[in-house]
Amino acid sequence: MKRVGMSLKWALFVWMAMVIWAAFLWVPTAGGFKGESARIVFFHVPTAWVATLAFLVSCITSVMYLFRRDQRDDSRASVSAGLGLLFAVLATVTGAIFARIMWGAYWNWDPRQTSITILLLIYAAYFALRGAVADPEKRATLAAVYSILAFVTVPFLMFIVPRVYWSLHPDVITNADPNNRLDSAHLRVLLASLVGFTGLYVWLYTIGSRIETIRRRRQQEVL
Amino acid sequence: MSDLTGIMLVTMIIWIGLFAYVYRLDRKVNRLED
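^ inputs. structure came back:
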């Protein structure tokens, strides 16, 4: 089993190295974008996807905690929310770089940028809440309820708001603008990147959960 | 060397550094679990 795990980690290393090479040197320049700005899509979209996935996992494990009252579920929810926040920050930064090239400014208060800022604040508040409650059971219950409520806003802020209001943000997958063209080579690299980033999330999530288990075990030993 | 090659190399170095860090952390967690 350990050998399979080791092989998967090295496969992820090679996979992502190939994605990076292909993203910059293999795919041709995309039409409708300024310069080489479209290449950031190969990192921006997967980080946004992983953030959404991580918030979903945090919500699911929070529901599991409320049903089972198992502290491991609370740890998993916390680890996944932390990773979601990290990847959401990366999506925001890569998006700002794209905005600078395309529209001349890192920040335009575009609906997409505004909604991700609200999302970052919501999940930052999740960790403020966790830090404010000392009792582990009370903290876990409050954090679980908050995580579920926080995830209710994710589809609204990530998918609905940017489509209801006029936005500069391009829809690269289902775009209606004939100028923004990503061909099959772009889509192949984008899909490969999505797979690679998802693998990286799974690996980080597993390590984070194991660290939390060790920490809890040591705390019990001390008590 | 073109700009794209340079950015690719920087991104690759970041990936190698990140992978090495996470890999070492993973091994450390393995040792702590044993």
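The mean pLDDT of chain B is 92. Residues 1-34 of chain B form one domain.
thumbs up if we can close this ticket
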